[in-house]
Amino acid sequence: MKIGGTHYRTIWPESDGAVGIIDQTRLPHAFETLKLSTLEDAAHAIRVMQVRGAPLIGVTAAYGLALALRADASDAGLESAAKTLAATRPTAVNLAWALNEMLTFLRPIAPAERAAAAFAKAAQLADEDVETCRRIGAHGKAIIEDIAKKKDGPVNVLTHCNAGWIACVDWGTALSPIYQAHDAGIPVHVWVDETRPRNQGAALTAFELGAHGVPHTVIADNAGGHLMQHGDVDLCIVGCDRLTAAGDAANKIGTYLKALAAKDNGVPFYFALPLSTIDWTLFDGVRDIPIEERDARELTHMTGRTDGGDIVTVQVTAPGSAGANPAFDVTPARLITGIITERGVSPASREGLAATYPEYARTAA
């Protein structure tokens, strides 16, 4: 995607051997890039959400492993680096998936050759993510196009958090169908949930939709149900951080409430995700998906730009009040209309996912 007329991916190899990223903690007020040069740099970037979004976390971990092998390519070094990266974010399964892909590939390779091989493999995973997201977008675009044929005016899509190109290597998952519909001339408008407490919708989704010229409106997190009641939402598309083999979906906190409102109002509710987001070992998402508890300061404080142009952080809660900050919730499969994948739209069920990915479902418990 383009920023100011320049094409960017969210992660790329630098000429000096480092890995470049966009610092997402600075958006939308400043567009800045960073260089990752060590394992510690990569782990820090994931942990503090300089990179975020399940697919991008996975690719960053892959590059982080490659950076680590420059310092220690021994068997012990390989396993230790993977353990360090795996501990950074517990909910997004793409992290574990990418590390497993890298470990399976690298373990048989001689230590002297591992670093170069790891960089090549990480680049391959990045390229594959771009193509996967493009294909997710093509399948999701067909859903938007079908709705557009049946109504006057734009198709109104509600989304939660950020699952656009900033959350992936390029294109995105939930936003890829929107970009492809917009580029094809299909009238589309996006309701952008602000997504408290980190405001990924207001900050990141609005930023990238605006950069691409897609009509959109930022709304308070609690406004979605009201809009659905009044017929102002045609469908919801959100991303996903972990999908069980039975179709339960973990996504940014607040997604479950939107799915309940959509069900009550007959609004289709889709999750868009790649194969790497599916956890074939889990079947009960509410019980078994680990939910990351983040620093309460994300809830009690907010960062923004003053009218004078300064970027400041202020406290928004009553002094002395405790804060609880679960980062994700789980939407049960019964509330999900379908799963938009790179292979097509799948029912949110064990049978539906097994039919879409038979070679992986056979290995599920």
Describe this structure in words.
The protein is of the alpha/beta class and 365 residues long. It folds into 2 domains: 2-128, Four Helix Bundle (Hemerythrin (Met), subunit A), CATH 1.20.120; 137-361, Rossmann fold (3-Layer(aba) Sandwich). The protein has helices at residues 39-47, 54-71, 75-86, 93-106, 111-148, 176-183, 200-212, 224-229, 255-265, 285-288, 297-300, 350-356, 358-361; strands spanning 2-3, 6-7, 11-13, 19-22, 33-36, 155-159, 188-193, 216-219, 235-238, 242-244, 249-252, 269-272, 278-279, 301-305, 311-315, 328-331, 338-341, 344-346. Strand 6 (155-159), helix 6 and strand 7 form a beta-alpha-beta unit. The chain is globular and about 65 Å long.
Question: What does this entry show, briefly?
Answer:
This protein has about 375 residues and is of the alpha/beta class. The chain is about 40% helix and about 20% strand. It is built from 13 helices and 18 strands.
What kind of sheet is the major sheet? Answer: 7 strands, mixed
Q: What is the helix content?
A: 40-55%
Count of discrete structural domains: 2
Which strand order does the major sheet show? 8-7-6-9-12-17-18
The radius of gyration is 20 Å
Q: Which of globular, elongated, flat, extended, rod-shaped describes the shape?
A: globular
Please give the CATH architecture of the largest domain: 3-Layer(aba) Sandwich
Distance N terminus to C terminus?
Answer: 39 Å
CATH structural class of the largest domain: Alpha Beta
CATH topology (fold) name of the largest domain: Rossmann fold
- Structural class of the helix and strand makeup? alpha/beta
Portion of residues in beta strands equals: 15-25%
Active site: 241
Family: Belongs to the EIF-2B alpha/beta/delta subunits family. MtnA subfamily.
GO biological process, one term: L-methionine salvage from methylthioadenosine
Site (Transition state stabilizer): 161
